[in-house]
Design a protein that fits this description.
The protein is of the alpha+beta class. The chain folds into 2 domains: 187 residues, no CATH class; 62 residues, Arc Repressor Mutant, subunit A (Orthogonal Bundle), CATH 1.10.10. 54% of the residues lie in helices and 6% in strands. The chain is built from 14 helices and 4 strands. It has a 4-stranded antiparallel beta sheet with strand order 1-2-3-4. Helix 2 packs antiparallel against helix 3. The chain starts with 18 loop residues before the first helix and ends with a helix. 17% of the residues are buried. The N terminus and C terminus are likely disordered. The structure holds a DNA duplex. It is found in: Nucleus. Keywords: DNA-binding, Nucleus. One of its GO terms (molecular function) is DNA binding.
DNA sequence: AAGTGGGGCAACCGCCGAGCA
DNA sequence: ATGCTCGGCGGTTGCCCCACT
């Protein structure tokens, strides 16, 4: 009888890990330790959900209409994002790349010699060989053997790998004059650089918006509240997540273009521009007419919900935040029926 | 400048053994 | 004793980068 697959492959991310996935995984393992790999992805996803729940608690105070938009975006995010990785993939990523004691960089001549001798002794038992090389992984040893030593065990020559490593060596690791350490450009890193470009574009947009604001001081108040709102929570101490939203005005209907939670950018999970259609559908469901700017139903609903959240007695939202959030969470839970 | 092939590496696949109910 | 789950391991694949033509 064959083994059942470790997890359903349907809907799982594959291929190179993104910086965000690395962060989710690293944060989770730092908090809870490794092991339980099969249940880890789901559990790590809960961390995101808790962060978003916290985010919601804060933003529920800001503006009820905005909350609707954020709500929908969050719902779609929770539905389609998270750490959608096989547990084995999580384990591999942690052990081979994210572990803090991983030693990056070129294998020293001593290590190379040790690998040769151990391989002669142990054969292809890479985990045992790697166990004798602190900070080195079996995958790294295996790759090194397969790509270099197996081809030319007797006389390893200087390769372009070595040349590259010299030119890209990290100065901080080279201070003692030892063999220079190669700065690996992993796939995740490449993705990260791509994401940086995205952020820069967004920043440029924001800068342009700020310039517009400066040129048109009358709009400053409105744009400040709609375009970029950053909240650093003080209520729960240093462990509180910080997050920021960015909105974009388009055809007078603002929608979330991105937000960050403790450095995690949701724009890395899905394209907000493509997401506009979802917003329109949702908006159409709410209002019955996406283009109707003076929709009274939405306003009425907002007022009713605000009244409901306020307990109908005009007390402060903050006072009922916890209970209100419970209501909101159940609303989010039931979002699928409501949206579709 | 464009195409191509090889090197290097991360990630996936499938099997195995230990542990547990 | 048996079957299942899970972590670990080695082999392999696929992608990206770069040197070469």
């Amino acid at each position: 009888m064959g083994r059942s697959p470790c997890c359903s492959k349907v809907g799982l991310n594959r291929g190179a890990w993104t910086a965000t996935e690395d962060k989710i995984l690293t944060d989770y393992i730092k908090a809870h330790g490794d092991g339980k790999w099969r249940s880890l992805p789901k559990a790590a996803g809960q961390k995101l959900i808790s962060l978003i729940s916290y985010l919601f608690k804060i933003y529920i105070q800001v503006e009820i209409r905005t909350i609707f938009k954020v709500w929908i975006n969050l719902y779609v995010f929770l539905k389609f994002a998270g750490l959608k990785r096989c547990g084995k993939s999580c384990r591999l990523r942690w052990l081979n790349y994210l572990r803090p004691d991983i030693k990056r960089g070129n294998l020293t001549p001593d290590e190379q010699d040790l690998i040769i001798r151990l391989h002669r002794l142990l054969g292809n038992r890479w985990s045992l060989i790697a166990g004798r090389l602190p900070g080195r992984t079996d995958n790294e040893v295996k790759n090194y053997w397969n790509t270099k030593l197996s081809k030319n065990k007797a006389q390893p020559k200087e390769s372009k790998f070595d040349k590259k490593s010299i030119t890209t060596s990290s100065p901080c690791n080279d201070h003692d004059g030892q063999a220079s350490t190669k700065v690996f450009r992993t796939k995740a890193m490449r993705l990260m650089s791509h994401q940086v470009r995205q952020v820069m574009i967004n920043n440029t947009q924001h800068q342009q918006q700020q310039q517009q604001q400066q040129q048109d001081p009358d709009q400053n108040h409105i744009l400040d509240s709609n375009y970029n709102s950053t909240v650093e929570s003080e209520s729960t101490g240093g462990s509180s997540p910080s997050f920021s939203f960015q909105y974009r005005e388009e055809n007078s209907s603002e929608y979330v273009t991105g937000f960050d939670i403790e450095g995690i950018s949701l724009s890395e999970f899905f394209d907000f521009d493509e997401f506009c259609d979802v917003n329109n559908v949702i908006k159409g469901d709410i209002t019955g007419n996406p283009d109707d700017q003076s929709n009274t139903d939405l306003v009425l609903n907002e007022e009713l919900m605000l009244e409901n959240w306020n307990g109908g007695d005009g007390c402060d939202i903050q006072a009922n935040m916890d209970s209100n959030f419970g209501t909101s969470a159940s609303f989010l839970e039931s979002g699928e029926d409501w949206v579709i």
